[in-house]
Design a protein that fits this description.
The protein is α+β, with helices and mostly antiparallel strands. The protein has 16 helices and 22 strands. It has a seven-stranded mixed sheet, with helices on both faces.
Length: about 500
């Protein structure tokens, strides 16, 4: 099999973090060749037309995406996956959407907080200019887009007396932080990395131990700790795999899985945590497509689980090859077949509800594991109502079929006594189809149909309980925005969260 290994074009004299790209490319290529594949390195720059042309000429069976930036800028990271997705090629790692949501740290933090996950408070200069307040405590100045701990050193931790002082501090470090920065509450304490593979499957949790750091020196994984082998930080920052602390490790694993779901991730990712003195975990970052060099944290966690570097690369490639690719919608609601190795997958969408759909819809709703017995009965009652009354009952249906089997559905209707507001009452996909992009396709189709019927806004609601974090993340990923929150609406501690999609 021919595999295109995409990576950023690294110029001469590039900094250490960019040069590591070439180490990663060489290691991944060696593993692919050992597995019997032909690995072809494809450097990528800002000329995306050239990247697309190269891929068309190469005609690879799959793409192994190692691009971490373009022209030295992390903000362009999601552009290359968009090119690959346009060509319909199987690709390792996260989708373009997943990379954007996790790479922009301000967006990422908003998604995590909306999903009910613990993140330190943060503020940007724009927030302060709009009347935002200064978070309490010491702050750490971070880049919005750049990773690899760019610009993180002891001077990145500040104690501004007011908002103006923080704005000045941010401005003074913009060059070191890639041109766009924000401030986050600094959490002293222990640091952990949790690596997650598709499934999702959590690998052994790693802790970053700060050995013999002098009193007052910030304990953090800054740029020197990652890249400057001669520095104190590099030599005294050690990765370990802790034993004991089972309750804490289980909590970190559970939060990592929730974060994975909130972003709808595929492939592999790493979630970075701080645990404060009270034992509370805080998510610092979610890194989609983390470094796969043999000495990097992800490979170390895989090896700890019994997976060699070669086996890890093979597993990542196999997951990409077996991942159904979302189809392209055509007029009439029919999905264009997209290639999946070894089979052809066709998705069709229809409105007409048939009596035999009743059992399929009940099976889908039950299989998700999210709904109570009473909620399942309500879903089936709406099907019965539509079968009896048709559209006069006020409920519209959209069903998704794959290979003759109903694998997802949506139920929607106009909000009574309104002129242009509609409700998305139900949307569900069978668990064996989740992560294929089917949910996004159904949302897009419902939005198109509601728009054609004169609708201007589509509402959806869900619970604020932690188990519904993936659902809330799904709405955010499909361009809904949170419109309202009603505390304790369903029960004490169970909020009602309402999302809106402007059409």
């Amino acid at each position: 099999m021919r595999v295109a290994v995409l990576h950023a074009d690294v110029p001469e004299g590039a900094p250490l973090d960019e040069l590591d790209t070439l180490v990663q490319v060489a290691a991944v290529s060696r593993a692919l060749e050992a597995l019997g594949h032909q690995a072809v390195a494809v450097p990528c720059g800002l000329d995306l037309g050239a990247v697309e042309a190269r891929l068309r000429d190469l005609a690879p069976d799959a793409v192994f995406n190692l691009v971490e930036s373009l022209s030295g800028a992390g903000r362009y990271l999601p552009l290359v996956p968009a090119v690959v997705e346009r060509l319909g090629l199987p690709m390792t790692g996260a989708t373009g959407d997943g990379l954007y949501l996790t790479s922009n740290k301000l967006v990422s933090k908003a998604v995590l907080r909306a999903a009910g996950l613990p993140v330190p408070d943060w503020v940007s200069a724009a927030d302060l200019a709009a009347g935002g307040s200064l978070p309490r405590g010491r702050l750490i100045l971070k880049s919005v887009w750049e990773h690899a701990s760019l610009g993180l050193d002891d001077d990145a931790i500040v104690d501004p007396v007011d908002g103006a002082a923080l704005v000045d501090a941010l401005a003074s470090r913009l060059g070191a932080l890639g041109g766009e920065a924000f401030a986050e509450v600094y959490i002293p304490g222990r640091e952990f990395n949790v690596s997650v593979m598709a499934g999702p499957r959590v690998l052994p949790v790693a802790e970053i131990a700060f050995r013999d750091f002098p009193d007052g020196k910030p304990q953090m994984v800054g740029y020197a700790a990652k890249w400057d082998e001669g520095s104190f930080e590099y030599q005294h920052t050690v990765r370990v795999f802790p034993e004991g602390d089972e309750a804490l490790l289980a909590r970190l694993e559970a939060l990592s899985l929730q974060a994975w779901g909130a972003f709808g991730l595929t492939g592999y990712a790493r979630v970075d945590f701080r645990v404060d003195a009270a034992g509370r975990p805080w998510i610092l970052e979610v890194n989609a497509n983390p470094c796969l060099s043999p000495d990097a944290g992800f490979a170390a966690a895989a090896e700890r689980s019994g997976l060699s570097h070669q086996a890890l690369i093979g597993a990542i490639l196999d997951e990409a090859l077996g991942r159904p690719l979302p189809g392209l919608r055509l007029s009439g609601g029919v999905m264009r077949p997209r290639p999946v190795p070894g089979r052809q997958v066709t998705v069709s969408l229809r409105e007409a509800l048939r009596p035999d759909d009743r059992g399929a819809i009940e099976e889908i709703v039950r299989a998700t594991g999210f709904f109570s017995h009473e909620e399942v009965e309500i879903a089936v009652e709406l099907v019965d109502d539509h079968l009896e009354k048709g559209l006069e009952g006020g409920y519209h249906f959209l069903l998704a079929e794959r290979e003759g089997r109903v694998v997802g559905y949506a139920c929607y209707g106009q909000v009574p006594a309104t002129t242009a507001s509609w409700d998305l009452y139900w949307i569900a996909t069978h668990p064996d189809q989740q992560g294929t992009g089917l949910g996004r396709v159904m949302v897009d189709e419902v939005a198109d149909r509601v728009r054609a019927l004169g609708g201007e806004v589509l509402f959806a609601e869900t619970s604020g309980r932690p188990q519904y974090a993936p659902t809330r993340g799904f709405y955010l990923r499909t361009h809904f925005t949170q419109a309202a929150l009603f505390p304790d609406f369903y029960a004490p501690g169970d909020d009602r969260v309402v999302y809106a999609l402007t059409l």
